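new request in #modeling-help
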Amino acid sequence: MSEYLIGLIFLVGLWGVLSKPNIIKKIVGLSIMNGAIVMFFVHHGARFGSTAPIREGAETGAAAAAVMVDPLPQALMLTAIVVGICIIALGLALAVLLYRRYGTLDIRSIEAEAWSTRD
Amino acid sequence: MTDPVILLLVLPLGGAAAALAAKLPGIDRRPALVRALTLVTPVVLLGGAVALGFGYAAASAGRVATYTLGGWPVPVGIGLKLDGLAWLSSVLVFGLSFLISLYAVAHREYGPEFYFFFMLLVAGMEGVVLTTDVFNMFVSFEIIAISAYVLIAYHREGTALVASFKYLVLSSVGIFFFLFGVFVIYRELGTLAFADITSLYAAIEDPVRLRTLRLALVALVVGIGVRTAFIPFHTWLPEAHAYAPHPISALLSGVLIKVSFFAMVRIITVFSPGMFAHLLLWIGAVTAIVAVVWALSQRDAKKLLAYHSISQMGYVLAALGAAGGATAAITVSGGPAGAAAAADAGGTLALSAAVYHALNHALFKSLLFLSVGTAVHLTGERNLYRMPRLGRRAPLLAVLFGVGALSIAGVPGFNGYASKVAISTALAGSPAYMLLNLTAIGTAASFIKLSRVFRPGARDSEGERAPAQARERILPPGATVGMSLIALLCVTVGLAPRTALGLLQGLLAPGSGLATMSPAFAPAKLLDTAILLALGFVVYRLTQTEIGGRIAHRIEEHAPGLRTVLLFFLVGVVGFALAATVA
């Protein structure tokens, strides 16, 4: 059930990227998509249990592993979050430059002006 | 475990660090030191290429070099692997980036940050080439993407900013689908390493799980498809490649889309070789013909070249489609044991033809972008009808452009012809080949059109009108060396087409018998080519008539906006998903 909800969040992000003409909102849409993917992984990682994956004392794996989260998705998502932040930051930087250059955030008018003054 | 494969990643990252050091306070005020630190870039790239050269004997013998980061075994640690295909791609990455960086360094208009991102891009591409798991492929693709966005927008011209933003939005959406595919794989199989995916996928019998994993493969292919730029994911490419700085256009068109393409070949092979073969064959053929029509209609010289990149990748994709299951030759485990799987000689030939054309395209397209870029730089004009003719002012530049143009048009004796013959042998009898023949006509026509810039013209008065530019060296020595070497490679491959193909096959499918292509210079082939080129000239004349010009203008105006681009993308996703569930 919750996987479908996360899927819905992914689609909300996609809808934002697709239908919002404002470039900042498009970038926010990308951010939502990225967040949804992170949630997919983290949610799946918690399928056994949700305690921190730290072994205390000399107890062996089996019992502890039954209540621990799967650490691999968390490690992966740490990387994915960093990558996502880079993309969002760069997108916003481009948005600033585009706004300074064209005086609007509406991608339709930006594109119309950019391609009309091309040659 | 002790192969020095990691050097291929450390070298460009070290180069990037050197370039970044030039921004340190204290160093950035000393021009000589800054210059020296930017010169690290070509030196490092040459070093990588030379090191790879020493590895040739091992690679062609089918030996796979591996390295695991931090000493952890593969499912936990990060593994790197250098097999035949990876060796070829690495040579392409280092060799061509080196020649392109010579051009960039010689022009002295790029600061240290340019070389930082340049080297980061190279490191990212090497990451994609060497990786052995899907998640690292994602990370490497994003390293590539971030550097590419910055480099495209480097000069901060309005058009370049819009192009970069468009690329950012589309390829980020693509890569999020890719990451979703990675998630589904992890959820279903509990592993992300290529080798484990292959064995676990082969063992699945439950049809529902099989379909889920096929959809995961669709997500991966779609994500990479945006970078490889075939229809319907091509829409970002013309602007991004056309408005980027000239060396970056050459790097993106020459190297980056090939690396993405090889990554796609690898991903499909990891799952089931031959998957989507029929779909890719037709997408390739349609991409080739549609993109060439758009290319022929452009007045912007660099945009014309950018559309041709899409079109030529169509050829490559069609040949890959024809290869079908033979991509199994590039096995995940690699080596001669896997090559036995590829019994189908025709398929092996098609696969080699695809890689062959991809590599040839890398050579001639970077040459074309550099020569046309120089012309744009000299004249300050992108519209090829308004550019003054440069033939008399810059004869060497005209010759270099000529080599590139003759190669892409498929004139015998140049490398484009060599791989086109290989593709025609591979696709013999397929209806898709008709489309590729039509594409050849369009290609010839559009390069006759573009060549007007480099013809010797009477209008040499342009030189006097811009005295500052006239005094400038047209081609600095470094740029001349870089471009001449690329041109030399084009001609060498073109004159010995079968030897070059044999070398490729030895690397791609070591141990399997060499499938021979039909003799490249057979009279029938030459006659066919002559007819195609003559038709190309006719088409060129037609586009110069009033009606032809009006049609061309209408097509040129028809450039999709960002929203349409994203809709195209979604249509592509649905299309691939349908193909995967039906298959």
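bot summary: Chain A has five helices and no strands.
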